[in-house]
Fold this sequence. Notes:
Helix content is 33%, strand content 27%. It has 15 helices and 23 strands. The protein has helices spanning 7-16, 38-57, 73-79, 81-84, 101-109, 118-127, 172-177, 179-185, 231-248, 297-306, 332-343, 379-390, 404-414, 424-429, 450-459, and strands at 20-22, 34-36, 62-64, 86-91, 98-100, 145-148, 152-154, 164-166, 192-201, 216-226, 256-260, 272-280, 284-295, 312-314, 319-321, 324-330, 344-349, 352-357, 368-372, 396-398, 418-422, 431-436, 442-446. The strands form 7 sheets. The protein has a 7-stranded mixed beta sheet. A 5-stranded mixed beta sheet has the order 20-19-21-22-23, sandwiched between helices. Strand 22 (431-436) and strand 23 form a beta hairpin. The longest helix has 20 residues, at 38-57. It is globular, with a radius of gyration of 26 Å. The structure holds glycyl-adenosine-5'-phosphate.
Amino acid sequence: MTETVTMDKIVAFCKRRGFVYQSSEIYGGIRSSYDYGPLGIEMKRNIKEEWWRRTVHMRDDVVGLDAAIIMHPKVWEASGHLSGFNDMLVESRSSKRRYRADHLIEDATGMEVEGLSPEKLTEIIDHDDRIKDPVDGGRDFAPVRPFNLMFETYTGPVKAPENVVYLRPETAQGMFVNFKNVLQTSRVKVPFGIAQMGKSFRNEITPGNFIFRTREFEQMELEFFVEPGTDEEWFEYWLGERWNWYTSLGLNRENLRRYEHPQDKLSHYSKRTVDIEYYFPFRGWSELEGIANRTDYDLKQHAAFSGENLTYFDQATGQSYVPYVIEPAGGPDRMMLAFLVDAYNEEEVRGETRTVLKLHPRLAPIKAAVLPLTKKEPVASVARDLYGELKGDYRVFYDDSGAIGRRYRRQDEAGTPFCVTVDFDTLEDKQVTVRDRDTMEQERIPIDAVRERLRARIYG
Ligand code: GAP
């Protein structure tokens, strides 16, 4: 990664190359909403695909689920989200801006105040002159109050209190409420997991940092059910697995670390939480994913609120228990920002700046570009045939316009790991040139061998 990578640079790059656009841009945009463009959607799908492949397909002990976004409102009573899924909000009376009180205090004083009560936060703000409205420097703040982050809406035509429902703020609860269904309909035995990916919604007071924190985002969560007493061991196991997932996809180890949540700051359901953090040059160490030991909290809550028996009967031992849950929870939007920042490079090549995304081939939006040296026949037909052969396997790009050097640069920016050039010699020797994005080295190989060679280098 180059030293110069800034948020502005990444945002501009993402727009210019069709990775991410501001949502509703022709209307002036809407804050905190983004759309994934042609390259962005390919990359995001690859991240999700890699997560699903490694978390579900490659394992015997995890099954998938796709639960509804709108769930029974009681789910959120049981989970504690209705009463406790709050951020502390403070309003500046002079600018009318609203801020997260903990962020306002932390930014001004460096104090760690997460988890403090509204009264305590109000007292700190009232007494510490360093805390000012970032917009106008004023110090006229209303008392801090909790603000629930769930988006509320109504089902059916009548906007009445009994029809209130919520957009899910996490995918996790879908797994807990389906625990019994999955047990009864698939041949799983504890220890086993249920995995899900999909949209979640949080009415964040201060979204920001591009796709790092938005109000509508995707999550990829695994709820792994284990016998109580084995939970600590499984926690370590999943921490290792998730760490290895990031590094195996090329994320620079130096930009990754683990952050152990202090005992007194843990969520109400957690016995232990460790975040995998990434060092973003524009915001420092930040959570990519959290691994939590959720104990038997959620299953017990749902059993109590629904009246269903959510215990597990272990046929081998004849014992019944409520399983503990280890939860690795991440999100592809935030991961995508990390992978992009990590891969973004500007290099000097023969007196020119080359922008290159050194993405792992599995994550690259386009895996290969086929570049005929001329638009004329018969070179063009040979190139088209090769393009047709490769495009059934993954996303391939065909580009026959402009100087070859410029075409290489376009693919470097898109993160395409391989460019295959078809030239006049190909007609004679039946060989093509394969150029490696990172080393820029070129290798001449038989055209018949391209498909296998690329497959091995992308997925090997
Ligand atoms: N079920 C546990 C849970 O939801 P979380 O730490 O609140 O835990 C898990 O969220 C992950 O979801 C985060 O690590 C992050 O990757 C992603 N995430 C959470 N809020 C987000 C937001 N507002 N925008 C983008 N991603 C978010």
